[in-house]
Amino acid sequence: MAYLDHAATTPMLPEAIAAMTAQLAVTGNASSLHAAGRRARRTVEESRETLADALGARPSEVVLTSGGTEADNLAVKGLYWARRDADPRRTRLLASPVEHHAVLDAVDWLATHEGATVEYLPVDRYGRVHPDALREAILRDPDDIAMITVMWANNEIGTIMPIRELAEVAREFDIPMHADAVQAFGQLEVDFARSGLAAMTVSAHKIGGPFGIGALLLGRDFTPVPVLHGGGQERQVRSGTLDVPAVAAFAVAGRLADDGREDFAREVGALRDELAAAVLRAVPDAILGGDPAPGGRLPANAHFSFPGCEGDSLLLLLDAQGIACSTGSACTAGIAQPSHVLLATGTDPDLARGTLRFSLGHTSTAEDVAEVARAIAPAVERARTAGLS
Amino acid sequence: MTQISQRPLRVLAAMSGGVDSAVAAARAAEAGHDVTGVHLALSANPQSFRTGARGCCTIEDSRDARRAADVIGIPFYVWDLAERFREDVVDDFVAEYEAGRTPNPCLRCNEKIKFAALLDKALALGFDAVCTGHYATVVLREDGTREMHRASDMAKDQSYVLGVLDEKQLAHAMFPLGDTLTTKDEIRAEAERRGLAVAKKPDSHDICFIADGDTQGFLAGRLGGPAEGDIVDEAGTKVGTHEGAFGFTIGQRKGLRIGHPAPDGKPRYVLDISPVNNTVTVGPVEALDVTALTAIKPRWCGTAPSGPGTYTAQLRAHGGETEVTAELVDGTLHVSFAEPVRGVAPGQAVVLYDGTRVVGSATIATTVRREKAAAAG
Known about the structure:
The complex is a heterodimer. Chain A is built from 13 helices and twelve strands. Chain A folds into two domains: 134 residues, Aspartate Aminotransferase, domain 1; 246 residues, Aspartate Aminotransferase, domain 2 (3-Layer(aba) Sandwich). Chain A is 42% helix and 12% strand. The longest helix of chain A has 22 residues. By secondary structure, chain B is an alpha/beta fold. In chain B, β10 and β11 form a beta hairpin. Chains A and B meet through α10 and α13 of A and β3 and α4 of B.
C-alpha cells in the first residue's frame, strides 16, 4: 500500500488528533458569555494566535472557515462585491487560468450572475503567471478592476507562482489580491505579512489537521461582503459557531507544519526526486509536468504525462496494486476531462488525458517510491494497449 | 455447465446505478471473482439528462452505482464513453428513424459499447470478462465453445438485445442474473439483504438518452423541426397530416390524430413510413400481417447455418416467439413465417432461436405483406 495522494488529503498528525479529541469532550460555545463559553473562546483565540504566528499574520487577520473552498469563495466573491459596491466601474476580475475549481468556479459564477468580466492571465508552459503579464492586464484600465486572484502553488503540476512580485504589482495599483495557498502551506514559506496579499486561503487537512476547517487570512483593511450571514462571528465576515476541536487541531497542525517545513521540504523533496527519476527511467517517454527546476515546484509534487495512455486506466491499474495517486485534482475526478491546468499550459489535449499526479507527505517512505518504480512501466504498457477511447 | 466460471476471473462489472447490475456485481464478487465496478458516462454533459431515477446516465445514477460498489466492497470508476455512445448509438438511432426504420438502441449499445468499446478496454487492461445485469444464460460446452440461451425466467429474458453478440464477445460476457428463477421483487429483496440502497429504485423503461421520454420531440430536435406531411390510406388517399414521418413505428395505432373514422369504422395502424416523400401509410390491422422478411448484417453465435433451417424467431423486445424457416443467401437472411405475424418493423432485430439457444441475429430490412405480397419498408 503506497499512499501517494497527500495533495488530496494527508493523514492527520497524532498531535492534532490528540488536541481534537481532548476538545471534543469539552463543552462550550466560543460565543457564549459564561465560564464554559469563555473556556472555549480561550482555546479558539490561542489557536488563532498560533495559526497567525505560523502564517506571519496578526491574530485578527485569521478568519476561520469551513475549509479552503469556503475561504476561496469568501475572498473572490466577497472582495468582488465590496470593491464593486465602493465603485460600480470595478467589475473586471483577473485570475490565473490554472486555479483550483474553488476559485475558478466562483469566478465563473460572478461572471454569469454578477456582471463580472473575467480576464484570465497568460501563463507560461509551466503554468506560471509573470508579473509583467499582470501589470499589462492591469494597465489596460487600472480603475475597473475589482480584485486579482492567483494561487500560490498549483495543486496539479506543483508550479510555484512569484506571489510576492505579483502582489507588489497589485499593491502599486491599490488592487486587492488573493492567493489560494492551500498547497503551499507546509511546503513553502507563506508569510502573509511579507507576501503583500490582501487575502490568502489555507486549509487544515492538507497539513495534517482535520477536515472541515480552514482559514482566510484577511488584511485588516479589507472587509469582504459576507457569503454566510448570521451571528457575526469572525469580524462579521464569516458567521457560524466555531468548531472548537477542529480549530485547536488546525492550530497544532499549523504550528508543526511551519516548524517542520524546512525538514519536510528537504526529506520529502529528496523522495520526490527519487520518484521522478525512477518513473522517467522506467518510462523514458514520460514527461514531467510543471517546472523541472527544484526551486520552481512544490517539493512534494511529481506530475507526469504518459503519451498514448488514459490517466484513468493508469489510475485503475495502480490502484489494483495498492498505489494511490490521482489523475488531476480529486475534485475533477469522475468523468475524465483533460485538465484545465495542462490545457492552459499549452499541452496537447490527448497528452493531457494521460496524466498522473503523485503527491508525497509526512508518511511517505522509500518503499512507496520503490513500489511505484516497480509498477509504473507494466501499467503504462497495459494502458497503452487499452489506448485512448 | 454453470453460468459463472468456477475459476476466479478479473471481472469488470458495468454498473448503471440500477438494481440488476448492482446485484449482478455482488453475485460475481461473492462467487470469488476479482470484481471492479465501472459506471459508463454516456453523456458528455450528464446534468443535461434526466434527473429522475429512471435513466442510466445521470449524476444520481453514477452516485447510486458508486454507493453499491462501496457496499459490495469493490473498486469503482467512472469511464467516459460519451463520444463512442453518441457516434454508435445516438447518431445511429436518429439516422435509423430518419430512414423510416425503428431502431433498438439498447441492442446497439450492447453490440457497440458494452461488449465492444468497454470489453476491448477491459481486456486490454487485463480483465477477463465484462459482467452486466442482463437476464440471459451463457453455457460453456464441453468443447470449450459457448452458447447463449434465454434466461431461465422467460418473462425477464433479455437474450433478444444480446443476440448480436458473437462467440468471441460471449466468451468474455458474464450474466450472473441469467439463471435466476426469481421475480423482480426477489432481486430487490436480495439487494435489500445485501444492503444495496438501489433495492427500491424504480426500473428504467425508456431510452436512457431521451430525458423526458419524448422520442418525437428528441427526433424533431435532431432532424430539424416538424415537417408536416400526409397520412394516406393504402389506396394513396390522404386521410390526415402528421408533423414528421420520423418517429412513427410500423404497427403504431395511437397518436395518428386522424379526425374521421375509416370507412369500415375499424382502427387504423401505421403500415409504412416513407421518409423520402414524408408520407405515413395507414390501414386496417390485417394489412400489418407479414409472411416473410429479409434481414441484413447477420451476426451468428457460433458458425452460420448452412442451408435453410427451422427456428423460432423473436421480432422485437418483449415480443413472442414465432415459427420460421430461415436461410442465408449472399449475406442476407430470408425468413418465412409459418403463420403471418403482425407489427414487424424494419430496423428491429430478428433473433433466431433453436429451442432456448440463440442462433443469431440480423437487422430487419424488408417485409412481405400477406395481401399484397409486395416488399415494403
